[in-house]
Every structure is written in structure tokens, then in C-alpha cells.
Amino acid sequence: MMIIIILLSGGIMLALALFIAYTLGWANNALKVEVDPRVEAIGVALPGANCGGCGFVGCSDYADAVVHKGASVTLCTVGGSSCAAAIAAIMGVDVEESWPYRPAVHCGAKSSQRLGMMEYRGEKSCSAANITGGVQGCVYGCLGMGDCLRACKFGAIEIVEGLATINYAKCTGCGACAKACPRNIITMVPFKSDRMLVVACSNKDFGKDVRAVCKVGCLGCGACAKINTLFTMQDNLSRIDYDKYGDDTPQAIEAALQKCPMKRLIYTGKPSSRDIDAVASEKAQDIVTDSFATTVDKTTWKG
């Protein structure tokens, strides 16, 4: 009798297992979502950084958007032009003319050049300091507490003397630093060449007020705009029209650069051969290494 019960139980379990297996197999086929092979191909072509620079959650989301939502094939800042060409080939479209976007810091004042500084004892973040009045005289300038540095996944930002500085050799143009800056002094600029001109100031106050808080801020004099139509004045601050920016820009605006009294029109990006030659004779600082020594190592034990 016991053997019959065991066999009957085993038979029921086997039948249930077969039924569940059949049901799962049927559901897998009936509910299967067809994936466009182009989505998978674009996913392979993308670098897989998932940085969000394209405006989508990650590479797979961007690949789906290209196929099903008509997203541009040139949005991957990490992959660059070669990646755009590969995606365009998969989609059977031509690559429209575009330029890589890279961040530019619109502040050129280091700690020693800022006036009205106070000791800040709050949370060491730009977001926290930005809502605290009187941290520094200029309410537009870089706070230098590294929110952008922490947001960058590629180690492309350093804080040098209280000022965010971008290493363009490492920068992929993901835009995370621009999103992290609470004062919006980092913007994404179309890099039509290795070095681009930017206005290294964000102060919108009148010249007299700028001088009271910063030694190097833009005075809003408009001298650059009077010389070249590439520049316009908006809110007492010089602006650059990058749609007019071309290969001949460096030569065409030389007079404007010389005319700027505060020298706030600067080139940013990869250094030119002239820049490298200018510092060729300078001796690099010695590399500081950890000694791994602690106060315990210098303690004299008695007993």
C-alpha cells in the first residue's frame, strides 16, 4: 500500500512538472517581445559607457531610441564620429554634420583672485555652499568644492586653486559636470577645433560691482562686440555665437582678444604647439609619494 502511495505521489509530481514546463514554454513563445536586430547591432557599436551624455538612461536605451524614436545617430559623445558612422551604417542613413560637445568653465578666478571670501564650515559641496549666503563675494563664480569632479566618471576634472579645471585628454563630453554645477558655469560647447574660445566669466553685474568681488571678472565693457560680430553683449556679459565660429576665427578675433581689459576671452581645450613650447623650459615639480608613516611609528614606548 505504501509503495502505491509513493508511486502515485511521484506520478502526480512528474505530471505537474511536465505541465509547468509546457506552460512556461508556451508563455515564452506567446509572450515573446520581438527585438529589432538593429537595436542589438547598435548596442554592440556603442562603447557601453552608460554615461548618459546622449540624454538617455544608458547605451541600450539610446540604441532603442535610435531605432524606434528617430533619435540622432550622433548623440554618443564617448564614441565620437566613428561610432556615429557605425550607427548610421546600421540604420542606412547619412551622418549629418556635427561636432563633439565638450564642457567649458565660464569662470577664470582662482581663490587668490576672489574678493569677499569667508570661511565656510558647512558641507563641502557646491550645492550646499550655493544656498549659503556670503561664501564668496561673487555669486556667479566657481565655488571650487568639487561637485563636478565627483560627478565625472572619467577623472577629467581637477580643482586647481579653487577652480574647476578640465583635462580634455580624458574628457568624453558626457555632460555630467555641467549637470552637477549648481551655478551653471559649466556649459557644453561645440568643439569645432581642438581649442575653442570661451568667455571665462559668468558675472552679470555692472563693472563696478564686478571689480568689488573679483580681480579678473568681465567688466561688460563691450569692446569685443564692437570689434567682431562673433561677440554679443547680454546681461552685461560677453557671449560668443558659436554658429559663426569657423576655421578662421583665431585670426579674425585677435584684435578683440587684445582689446579685452581683463583678458577673459581665453582658449580652452588641447594645448597648441605654441603653448607647449612656452613651458618647455620649466622644470616639472617632483612627484610626491606616500611614506605610509603614521604617528605611531614616531612614538617612543616606555614601560
Describe this structure in words.
- The strands form 4 sheets. The protein has a two-stranded antiparallel ribbon with strand order 1-4.
- It folds into 2 domains: 55 residues, 3-methyladenine DNA Glycosylase II, Chain A, domain 3 (Orthogonal Bundle), CATH 1.10.15.40; 176 residues, Alpha-Beta Plaits (2-Layer Sandwich).
- With 303 residues, the chain is of the alpha+beta class.
- Helix 2 crosses helix 3 and helix 2 packs antiparallel against helix 4.
- The protein starts with a helix and ends in a 25-residue tail after the last helix.
- The protein is built from 12 helices and 8 strands.
- A hairpin with a 2-residue loop joins strand 2 and strand 3.
Q: Can you tag this structure with a few keywords?
A:
single chain; 303 residues; alpha+beta; 3-methyladenine DNA Glycosylase II, Chain A, domain 3; Alpha-Beta Plaits; two-stranded antiparallel sheet; two-stranded antiparallel ribbon; 12% strand
